[in-house]
Amino acid sequence: MAPMALALILGWWLVALSRAEQLPPPSLSLHPSQGVSLGDTVTLRCHLPQLVAWVWLYQDGGRTHNKFQDKGQDAVEFSFVSARWEHAGTYRCQYHVSEPLGTSEKSDPVELVLTDRRYPPPGISLSFEGHVMTAINISIHMERGSNVTIRCWNWEYGSSFLLHKGGHSAPVQRQDPIGGGMATFTLFGVSPTDSGTYSCSYRPRGHPSVSSPLGDSVTLEVTSPPTHPGANGESRGSLVVAVAGGCAAALAFGLILIIFFLLPACRRRIQTTAGSGESLKNSKANELQAHH
Prior knowledge:
This protein is α+β, with helices and mostly antiparallel strands. The protein is built from two helices and 20 strands. The protein has helices at residues 2-22, 231-291; strands at 27-31, 36-37, 42-47, 53-59, 64-69, 75-80, 89-98, 101-103, 110-112, 114-115, 123-128, 131-133, 138-143, 148-153, 158-165, 173-175, 182-187, 196-204, 210-211, 218-223.
């Protein structure tokens, strides 16, 4: 009987394995996807084909939950009405069907990070070209191509540090500095796409799925200077010089015309007028002598 039972078990296992290769894996999503604090309500939703199935939710190193999916449903929800520390962690889901027998692969992992506001927020500073700015909620304007360094710290609890940028659902950078305490994030050769508001959070030592609140923010605005500074001014200046030079040439040409053509003509006209007057005087004198 033992060999027979072993063969049956092996057969079922092979059937389940081949069936798993045919069943599409489910997907798992978190709602809300970020900013979940201790005591909030959070839902893990396992999306799967519209089949009658048992759905399993696994927490890495933690509890396993299961629910039965009715026909017509394309997702099964697992909710924590008041999230606690033990709910933080990484989750995957899987489903099982009985007709025909089969079990899907597990979904991709989803991490539930809980914010514990009892931890103090991290400090933040921004430095560039030797200048260090540590004011609260500062705004910096700079030209593209500069290197910018953002430092975040919490010496008492900080282990892993995350850099957040406004408008992004996930952190843009993460660092796990040796010994913790402070992380340095560098933005090399910034461009206008790096403009935005940055802030930090950290994961306390020994609690990788628990987060501190976000700290103060720094706002970076990157400007793009003209490719050829003063090029527009040079072209305008060249245009003014050209126009002024053209006017001066025209004026000089006009003076030349006056000197060489108009003045001689005026002289000839004056001489002609003077000659006519002299002839008129001589004729009058001759007439007077004839009468005498």
